[in-house]
Amino acid sequence: MADVDSTLAYIDQGSFLGLRALGRGPLAQYGWIYEHPVDLDALRRFHRNLGRGLLGRRIERSALPFGRDHWVAWTGPEDLDLADTPRPYEGILDWFDEQLRIPIDPQAGPSWRLAVQPLIEGGAAITLIASHSICDGLGLTLAIEQAASGETWDLGYPPPNSRTRGQALREDAVEFVRSVPDFAKAIAAAARLGKNSLGEVKSSAGRSTQPSKIDDGALVTAPSMVAYFGEGQWQSRMESLGGTSNSLFAAIAAKLGQAFGRVDDKGMVRLQFPVSERTPGDTRANALSGMTVMIDPVGVTTSLRDVRAELKRSLAALSESTFDLLGPVALAPLIPARLARGLEGMALGAGAPVGCSNLGKLGVEVNRPDGTDADYLLLRQIESRTTPAILDHLGGTLFLASGQVNGKVSVSVAAWRPGGPNSKELLTAPVLQIFAEFGLTPTKVL
């Protein structure tokens, strides 16, 4: 078998650079709630399979300070993290939050972890958390589907520390020389992006620095809630409003953005969607680009036609904007940590964007980590290792994620208002009110 190229793609190098520069980064979280007994033997098979797929790796630093880093094989923690003491079902979302604050490290490990919390009433809560530097949302979904189906995937990466110092220096130096043409193209792309986006750069500059030290004692997770709807109710509402599932999700996000004051001077809400570019056999951690959609929240509760049209227009224009945004990423290995910290505001975008991730209809295996259907599935993306000061400095956050499986649509919402007050209770009330404005009544709320 030919040697596998273990060099990180430029976009993955940029993701890892940001994590190292800031001391924090986004985490992707899947959660399952079982109201019936869990098969722990099957769950351990699922855990082993996860480590023999797209998650089966860590990052090893280049021997050169400006070199591109490499993937190395890593099959995951020795065992799943099984809690000794059962907890009550009520308040189980607090447990999911607590799991997000346990360190995840794509270099030192663990780059992902699977945890199980037995419930006093019977059943269990399960969560899988992975660094976004290892796998994006769709990649994690595919890894789960494969592991639950019993499939494994040998990525062909070498074991950690398999290169001598001299070998690593020579190989990374050769790789650097090969990358010089990419650097030249990236510099030109960065110049174009800077010229075309000068206004956005200025408006985001105020968020381009952060407190230099994270106080571990003050770590917080942005308050969140999860609502579940029957597929029939969700489809009925989207059709009666003249939209699609994605446009209904976007409209809800826009209305929430308005409610939380995340609007521009024209009252428009900026939605940011990841757009997957993952192809069969794709081993990139972040095989995606981004799409920004400006939505007027006025009238979206009575018609989705304008939202649907704007989503269609933005998708049609995506190829050009993707080139502009991703063109400079080849420069990632050359960017010093201080400058990387200063670029965070630009990465977030101008104004007060609303993050959106709708995975749509999922394969049934995604909901079966122990081989049987979980009663409830939750999907979240949360920034790790944040403090109130960091969240305030970034202008707060509002992020929605959704997925559909086993006859249910889940919608999770996480939010932080700069300066507060912030709590799950203060978040849940306006979210439920907006659902009601769309004619949606959750069958369950966590």
CATH class of the largest domain: Alpha Beta
Distance between the termini: 49 Å
Number of strands: 14
The fold-level CATH name of the largest domain is Chloramphenicol Acetyltransferase
- Spatial ordering of strands, largest sheet: 9-8-10-12-13-7-14
**Run of helices and strands:** HEHEEEHEEHHHEHHEEHHHHEEHEEHE
Mean pLDDT: 88
Largest sheet: 7 strands, mixed
Which class do the helix and strand fractions yield?
alpha+beta
* Radius of gyration over C-alpha positions, nearest whole angstrom: 22 Å
Q: Approximately how much helix is present in the residues?
A: 25-40%
Q: Which residues sit in consecutive blocks of at least 5 with pLDDT less than 50?
A: 197-216
Known CATH architecture of the largest domain:
2-Layer Sandwich
How would you describe this protein?
36% of the residues lie in helices and 21% in strands. By secondary structure, the chain is of the alpha+beta class. It folds into two domains: 10-167, Chloramphenicol Acetyltransferase (2-Layer Sandwich), CATH 3.30.559; 213-445, Chloramphenicol Acetyltransferase (2-Layer Sandwich), CATH 3.30.559. The strands form three sheets. The chain has a seven-stranded mixed beta sheet with strand order 9-8-10-12-13-7-14. Strands 4-5-6-1-11 form a five-stranded mixed beta sheet, covered by helices on one side. A hairpin with a 2-residue loop joins strand 12 (397-405) and strand 13 (408-416). Residues 197-216 have low confidence and may be disordered.
